[in-house]
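User: Some background: our group keeps a shared notebook of sequences we're curious about, and every so often someone picks one and asks for a predicted structure to add to the entry. Today it's my turn. The entry only has the sequence so far, pasted here. Could you supply the structure so I can complete it?
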Amino acid sequence: MSWIDTVLMPLKVVVAWIMVRFHDLFVVLGIPGETGLAWALSIVGLVIVMRIVLIPLFVKQIKASRGMQLIAPDLQKIQKKYKGKSDPASREAMSRETMELYRKHGTNPFASCLPILAQSPIFFALFRVLYNMPRLAMDPDEENAYPRDQIGPLTRDLADEFTEATLFGARLSDWFLASDEMSVKIVAAVLIVAMSATTFFTQKQLTQKNMPATALQGPMAQQQKLLLYLLPFIFLVTGVNFPIGVLIYWTTTNLWSMGQQFYVIRRNPTPGSEAERALKERRARKAAAKGIVLEEDKPAPAPEKPRGQRQQPKRKDRAKGATPAGSPTDETGPAPAGDPDAGGGTDRAAGGDKPSGGGAQQGGSGGPKPTAGAKKKRKGKGSSGPTR
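Assistant: Of course. Here's the predicted structure to add to the notebook entry:
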C-alpha cells in the first residue's frame, strides 16, 4: 500500500462508510444493488453529506470573495503608495495597512479558498477508493491485489459488485484513457464537459452577477476573469485521468454549488450588483401586484421652507452730544456734573441746559456749544501740575 493510501486511510474509511450506507438505503428503496445506478446515487449522497457539512465555509467563501473585490480599489491605492519602495520598513508598513484593510472589512484571501481546501482531502480519498476498487475486488492471492480485505465497511464482495456495475454501459471505476470501450469514452467525455461547464457557470455566477460595476475593474477583477476561463480548461484537460465515479462526484458538487449560490445571491446580493437590481425589481413587481408602495419608491418629501423672522425696526443713532429739545435723557443716564465729555460740558436739567463753568451759550434747539474757555479747561484737564 502506498504512502498516500496510508495517510488518507481515515478519510477513505469515512468515504466508504457513507457510500455503503447510501447504497444500502437505495437497495431498501427498491434499486438493485448490483446496478451502477445504486452506486452512482451513493456517490451523489456522499456529495450531499459533504456539502451540508461545508455550508458555513461556503457562506464564508461568498462573503470573502465579495469583500475581496469590493476592497480592490483600496488595495490598489496601498500598492501604489508603496510602489518602488523595497526597504523593510516600507514593506512592513504596506503589510500592516493591507492587513488592517482586511480586518476592517472582515475578509481575507484565504477565506475564499476554504471550501476548496476543505473538500480536497475528501476528493482525493474518493479518488483513491475508486482507484483501488478493482484491486480490492481481486483475490488476495493474486498479484497487485489490495493488501487489506476491506476499506471500512467496503468488503471485497461489495468491491466486486461495484466493479461489475455499469452506468450506460460504463463501469464507475473506469476512466477515459484507461479503456478502449466506446461506451466508457462517451460517458466520460459527457461528464468531463459537464464538469467543466458547471465550473464555468459557478464561477461566473459568483464573480460577475454578484459584484458591483466598480468591483469589475482593476487587477483583482482581471485575475477573477482569468480564473473564470482557466479552471474549466484545467478540468477539461485533467478530466481524462479521473474515474467516472470521480467525475460524477465533481459534477454533482458543481451543481450543488450553483444551486446554493443562486439561493444565497438571490436573497442576499452585494449592494450595487446586478443581483441586487434584480431583487429590487422583483420586490417592486410583487408590491405593485398587491397595490403596495415600497418605501424606496415613495417620492422624497419636499424640504420645508425656512420660516421668516419679523424684522425689528432699527434704532436711529443720535448725534453725539445733541439731544432734541424736550426729549428725555439718554438711556445711559445723566452724565456726572463737571464732565466735559458729556454733552459738551453742560449740566442737564429737566427744564433745559445750563452752562457749566465754561460760559457756554444756548444755541437754540441744536444744544449748547462749548466756549473757548471750556476748550482750554478740557485741554488742561489731566495735567500733572497746577495751572499758572
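Suggested note for the entry: The longest helix spans residues 3-28. The longest strand covers residues 346-348.
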